[in-house]
Amino acid sequence: MEACPHILDVLCPLHAILDPEGRIAHAGPTLSKLRPGRDLADADAFEVFEVTRPRHVRGMAALLAHAGQCLHLRLRDAPRTKLKGVVVPAPGGDGAILNLSFGISIVEAVRDYALTNADFAATDLAVEMLYLVEAKSAAMEASRQLNLRLQGAKIAAEEQAFTDTLTGLKNRRALGHILERLVVRGARFALMQIDLDWFKAVNDTMGHAAGDQVLQHVARELVEATRGSDTAARIGGDEFVLVLRDPGGQAEVARVATRIIRRIETPVEVAGRETRISASAGSALSWRYTRPEAERMLADADRALYASKAAGRGRHRFAGQDD
């Protein structure tokens, strides 16, 4: 019997040898791993384990009365891991041997106690289950990573579909969706069309690469001159649209337009040469319509824009404003 604990440690590492009073004379290495901060030697087994089925099993006599039967137990302190067990009298009737297993709680046990193959008998089917759990976890992680990459690719594709590649602003398609949502919600907003003055001269005298740099500069100015809740979009060659959400009133829209025109009129150096352009703008205000419609507002803002150009360029007008 002196070699018994060592043999049991190899054959069934999740076990306890109980003395006749029900105290733990020896705990297998895996059982000890379940309670690393507690010395189980000489602990009352019935204070460590609760027998949940059959019920009312307390004391060695009641435990041995169910020798050879399947017992359901759980640890009394957290984590309250559920176990299955079978008890047999020790040779010579000197106490008992309680062999344990995790049953269906093995996945939680592996997680809670960082168990490895070494914590199970070499012939234990739980080892095979661990392989399956590890394989499943690896497959799920690979699937999760793939889904993340696919989701990222989807977001990137959607972002690209709604972004003007030259300036990074929203494009016409994105603008349509934004205006549709604002109209459906009955939101208060201003729609401002902006067209660059004298931009063709930049392309004609300095080339399209210089023109692209000017467009990128204008895009930055539009973003810096507006709030994060506003939207700046490029809908054509040198045509831009601003959507100002809840701008406060007509006077505030006019101030935004003036600020933008002044910023765009500031000379900018392109390819070592000073470049001067200007901008004309026209705005439509949603609260001036009984039932705002995106297409109508765009058309009205466009007419106001060309009225600004006709009046001398470098200025802003509202839709419906008298000439």
Automatic annotation (TrEMBL):
Gene3D superfamilies according to UniProt: 3.30.70.270, Haem NO binding associated domain
Residue ranges the record marks as coiled coil: none
Name by which UniProt lists this protein: GGDEF domain-containing protein
InterPro entries for the chain: DGC-Regulatory_Protein, GGDEF_dom, HNOB_dom_associated_sf, Nucleotide_cyclase, Rev_trsase/Diguanyl_cyclase
Taxonomic lineage: Bacteria, Pseudomonadati, Pseudomonadota, Alphaproteobacteria, Rhodobacterales
Record organism: Rhodosalinus sediminis
Domain GGDEF residues, every copy: 187-323
Signal sequence annotation: none
SUPFAM superfamilies, per the entry: Nucleotide cyclase
Pfam families the record matches: GGDEF
